[in-house]
Amino acid sequence: MIRNSFIMTFILAVMLIGFLCGTLFMNQVTGMGPKDILVWNSYGPSENKLFTEIAAEWSKTNPGGYKIHVAQIPWMGQESKYRTALIAGAPPDIGRVDTPFVPELVHNGILEDITQFVTPEILKEYVPAAISSCIIKDKDGKERVYGFPDQTNGACLFYNKQLFREAGLDPENPPKTWDEFLAYCKKLTIPEKDQFGFGMDNSLWWSFPFFNTYGAEFLNPEGDKCLLNSKEAIAALQFKIDLYRVHNVEGRAWSSGGRKPEDGFLNKRYAMVLMGPWKVADFRKAKVDFGVALVPAGPKGTSTNVGGTNMVIFKQRKRSPEHLKACYDFLRYLTSAEVQAKWASELRQIPVNMGAYANVKIDDSEEAKILSVFMEQMKTAKARPKVLKYAQLELIINPEMENALNGGKTVEQALNDAVKRIEAEALPKK
Amino acid sequence: MQSAMNVKLMKRLKMFALYAVLVLGGIIVLFPLIWMVLTALKHPGTAFKFNFIPSSFTPAGFSELYTIENFKKVFNEFNFMKYFINSIIVATLAALFATTFSCMAGYVFAKKNFAGKDFLFYVLLGTMMIPGMMYLVPQFVITLKLGWFDTYQGMIVPHLANVFGVFMMRQFMRSIPDSLIEAAKLDGASEWQIFSILIVPLSKPIIVTLFLLTFLFHWSNFIWQLVITKPGSAILTLPVGLAYFSGPHGSEWELMMSASCFSIIPIAVLFLIAQNFFIEGMTRGAVKE
Fold first, then answer.
1. Which of A91, A149, A208, B167 could be cross-linked to A130 through a Cys-Cys bond (beta carbons 3.0 to 4.6 Å apart)?
2. Å from B172 to nearest chain A CA?
3. What part of B 30-59 touches A (C-beta under 8 Å)?
4. How many CB atoms lie within 10 A of CB B62?
5. Can you tell me the distance from the alpha carbon of A400 to that of A233, in angstroms, rounded to the nearest whole number?
6. B179, B185 Cβ separation under 8 angstroms
7. Contact assignment for A285 to B46 by CB distance below 8 Å
């Protein structure tokens, strides 16, 4: 017994010493050379595959002889990954980040300013709302360019053609205005079948299509005053809330425990939802008979929200001007009309470069039609407010909007209260 | 005769009611597992389509709803085995070392006397009040300075000081009578012999319990394993691997569930092997006898 315990202790001690000395499982960390460019992407498998091909192609053809090294990071937890890499002083040369993260990175002086390379003509090539997320007002009040958008998207109106037919509506003629939309909703709502005309999310991002189509501005040009209690914003939110409270055509998709819009649409609970292009493939695989249309027009026409990601260049302790130019050149190549046409054709995604619009080729005519609606919608999309902590806006506004949905406050009260808090907590002081 | 039959009937009814409740409880407990398996078998994009019963009970009817492609994809494209083996290495070593150290520290706090023992113990307990995320950056910086970025050491060592484990061990070991230790001393046992021959075997239930809990923690630890490894590293673990199925607009639930079906196997096996010890450890550590 004594012998056994000594043997066990000895084995454990040897393992521990070996382990701590790093001789057992040491994993070599490879360094990067002056002609290497490390890119972190958070793409899915098919996007990563195409991105790697594009990077390899550029590595072969760029005159400076630079080589792109692609590393895939998971989308989930990516901000923590970037933050810790920055603390370690070892960020990648180029990283794919969520658009609301960009102002914070700029504020902390972490990103390379590429304004010197970018002409107004270059900026005009991109989807306006997408490139807008890369143009950030610096601490000195001047706007500068920090990277390029690599992916952009926004919501469109998804409608179930089968439910349209059952309600006697023409599935090839979806609603074009909010008034028409409401009339359609009334016909499509059959409470006894647990079917509703519309299922809506209640977050700020998902409310932008309403605010934008009513012409509501979020911030003043200086960015220090919130305008979300304007009469346009009140009218927009009033319409959205009345869909549930007055007209009873919305199926409480926004409530906790409610069936989410995408799930309710999949299960024919909601005949119409606002949804992004990322759900098209899933709905088609699930054999949902659906169509996609522009967001119904309000007093200021059709518009939508904007999501997506940007490719930004991180500052490095030692970097030559040539290396920075090479990083910029790669991003221009990635977002060029030619490469974006290929990207959109293969992955069925909205190109960020509008020069690619005419060259997107998709064999499946139905998918081509759907993508063309999204591309059209992006022309009138409006970028989300560029504030240091976008998530904080959501945290402030969403409970106020839910309060209005539950009848706890009037729309005006809810927006006034939200604006007060946003100005006190989320905007820079005058 | 009549009353005997009534008693028998009542007994049967009671048994029936008991089994009915147990079966219902079983279904409720098993429901997430069944849902996981069914989702793993569904076609891409149909995870939230609430249709689990095939239109006909024929191969064609089943293939309309279910497929094994997700499992094939997980093994062929996702490199599941690499993540799985790394997780086994990390969770096993971490659980082994953390349990060993907690056992030693627990013994000292339970049976030894030294100045400031209680104060030190309460300071340690106080650290449990600090949210784990607060340690992320300091631990990361220290690990980096030790040159352990993207190594197994970096993944494991920062979590070896387990205050909860020390607390559990101390509470359990306090229930071991001091007279046993004194008897061992009279027999000439050294400190190390008392610990390894007397205390450790008597504490088996709590040791097994702590091993399982630590294993479980490291098996599902995501954020630390993510930040301490390089993207695409050869030592990535399962939680980080599974995160590749999630994007900005949702997750590939069918693939995630397919991988999860396999990832729960080690935990299930460990619990099955150690269930008796585990239950005993959970209850015995709770009270001082």
1. A149
2. 21
3. 43-46, 48-50
4. 14
5. 14
6. no
7. yes
Residue A223 token pair: 């960015």
Nearby residues of A184 by Cβ (< 8 Å), 6 or more positions away: A169, A174, A175, A197, A271, A272
CA–CA gap between residue B137 and residue B141 (Å, rounded): 6
Q: Is the pLDDT of residue A145 over 50?
A: yes
Residue by residue, what is the 3-state secondary structure of chain B? CHHHHHHHHHHHHHHHHHHHHHHHHHHHHHHHHHHHHHHHCECCCCCCCCCCCCCCCCHHHHHHHECCHHHHHHHHCCCHHHHHHHHHHHHHHHHHHHHHHHHHHHHHHHHCCCCCHHHHHHHHHHHCCCCHHHHHHHHHHHHHHCCCCCCHHHHHHHHCCCHHHHHHHHHHHCCCCHHHHHHHHHCCCCHHHHHHHHHHHHCHHHHHHHHHHHHHHHHHCCHHHHHCCCCCCCCCCHHHHHHCCEECCEECHHHHHHHHHHHCHHHHHHHHHHHHHHHHHHHHCCCCC
Q: Are A266 and B49 in contact (CB under 8 A)?
A: yes
- Half-sphere exposure for A349 (CA within 13 Å, toward CB): 23
DSSP state of B189: -
Q: What does pTM read for this prediction? A: 0.80
**Cα atoms in the 13 Å half-sphere on the side-chain side of B238:** 27
Binned at pLDDT 50, 70 and 90, residue A198 comes out as: very high
pLDDT score for A27: 40
**Distance in angstroms (rounded) separating the CA atoms of residues A346 and A185:** 35
- Token pair listed for B242: 């599974």
In 3D space, the residue among A328, A316, A335, A198 whose CA is nearest the CA of residue A253 turns out to be: A198
Q: Which of residues 155-184 of A touch B (CB under 8 A)?
A: none
Please count the residues of chain A.
Answer: 430
CA B38 to chain centre: 24
CB A325 within 8 A of CB A103: no
pLDDT band at B77 (very low <50, low <70, confident <90, very high): confident
Stretch A97-110: mean pLDDT: 93
CB A394 within 8 A of CB A422: no
Decide: B271 and B216 in contact? Cβ < 8 Å: no
Q: Does A18 touch chain B (CB under 8 A)?
A: no
Give the side-chain half-sphere CA count within 13 A for A56. Answer: 7
φ, ψ at B105 (rounded to 5°): -65, -40
What does DSSP assign to residue A427? S
Least confident of A1-15, A94-108, A393-407: A1-15
Burial of B163 (0-12, 13-18, 19+ CB in 10 A): middle
Task: Using pLDDT thresholds of 50, 70 and 90, give the confidence band for residue B1.
Answer: low
Q: Give the integer Cα–Cα distance in Å for A78 and A84.
A: 10
Nearest CB to B49 within list A5, A284, A286? A286
CA-based nearest residue to A251, from A235, A240, A264, A238: A264
Q: Put residue A343 in one of left, alpha, beta given phi > 0 → left and psi -120 to 50 → alpha.
A: alpha
Extract the tokens encoding A23: 């001789």
Choose the mutation target among A6, A17, A41, A80 for the interface with B, i.e. most B CBs under 10 Å.
A80
Contact flag A75-B227 (C-beta cutoff 8 Å) = no
Separation CA B48–CA A260 (nearest Å): 10
Res A152 pLDDT > 90: yes
Q: What phi and psi values does residue B127 have, to the nearest 5 degrees?
A: -65, -20
- Cα–Cα distances in Å, from B243 out to A72, A100, A345, B218, B238? 11, 21, 27, 16, 8
> What mean pLDDT comes out for the span A30-49?
86
Q: Is B168 helix (H, G, I), strand (E, B) or coil?
A: helix
